[in-house]
Amino acid sequence: MEVIITRSFLKDLKSKPKAVVLAVEALITQLETAKNLEQSGTDYRKMEGQKKGESYYRIRLGDWRVGVEYIHPKIIVIRILARGEVYKYFPPQ
């Protein structure tokens, strides 16, 4: 697949811990080598509340979620946000 990274994603990634950055790099490589999202081997889920024709997904990376838009054969990486227990160690700013 063709992976497109947005400016907002890069801005989010700058403030993340090094372990998260390395996990994201591995995820992007995994997405690039996959034929489609279903065969990528990632833990993904379609986001709720979408309008008809939208295709937004979130990909789980431990306590982090990567927001993507999937329009085959392109996947647009939009955001990375913390979820769950991670706030104990990295409080939001």
Task: Describe the structure in your own words.
The structure is a single chain. With 93 residues, the chain is of the alpha+beta class. The protein has a single domain (2-87), classed as YaeB-like fold (2-Layer Sandwich). The protein is built from three helices and five strands, in the order E-H-H-E-E-E-E-H. It has helices at 7-14, 18-33, 86-89, and strands spanning 2-5, 44-46, 56-61, 64-71, 74-82. The protein has a five-stranded mixed beta sheet. Strand 3 and strand 4 form a beta hairpin. The radius of gyration is 13 Å and the shape is globular. The model has no long low-confidence stretch (mean pLDDT 88).
Judging by the overall fold, what is the CATH architecture? Answer: 2-Layer Sandwich
Measured on Cα atoms, how large is the radius of gyration? 13 Å
Strand and helix order:
EHHEEEEH
Name of the level-1 CATH class = Alpha Beta
Main sheet record: 5 strands, mixed
Q: Characterize the overall form.
A: globular
